[in-house]
Amino acid sequence: MYYEMLRNRRSIRKFSNRDLEKEKVDIILKSALLSPSSRSIRPWEFITVTDMDMLQKLSLCREHGSVFLSGAKLAIVVVANPDKSDVWIEDASIASIIIQLAAQSLGLGSCWIQVRQRFHNKEKSAEEYVRELLQIPEKYCVESIIAIGYPDEKKEPHDESKLPYGKIHYEWF
Ligand SMILES: Cc1cc2nc3c(=O)[nH]c(=O)nc-3n(C[C@H](O)[C@H](O)[C@H](O)COP(=O)(O)O)c2cc1C
Asked: Which of 3.40.190.10, 3.40.140.10, 3.40.50.10470, 3.40.109.10 is the CATH number of 15-150?
């Protein structure tokens, strides 16, 4: 059941050494390409990274919040062209979460690494750092990196009784 999958999805930051089956990676990538986008413009592009050396380098894109990427088997870098759509951030975010949920549906763990608006160090943005490493053309902005692999940590499903029900407003705010 879709709701149970959502309740079980947790950000996974520790990954096992088990390789990912090509069929699973293909399903994740096809899922990304199925993402809805405004006016179906599909302003995004996806870069898959499996090379361990490159994963290690990408894991340093931020001072905090990205180091665990070095232990992942796969990174999917979500970029988009703002010239193509004024709502590229929404489109790239939707694709990012669809990648995460596709991974979850296949028994894999994942975690979103925020790149847009984040910094590598005082001089360089995380986006510039990732752009240089992966030779991303200037016209593309980098939204996120989704780290994927078989989980090597067990996290409890979200507790239904602790959901922030107060955020739901009925009929008016
Ligand atoms: C837009 C967005 C950006 C995020 N950025 C990061 C990040 O840079 N590093 C990280 O470790 N987790 C990141 N996360 C994961 C959140 O910390 C996580 O989803 C949140 O704490 C809830 O935990 P859960 O995913 O286990 O339910 C991000 C999540 C979202 C939706």
From this structure: 3.40.109.10
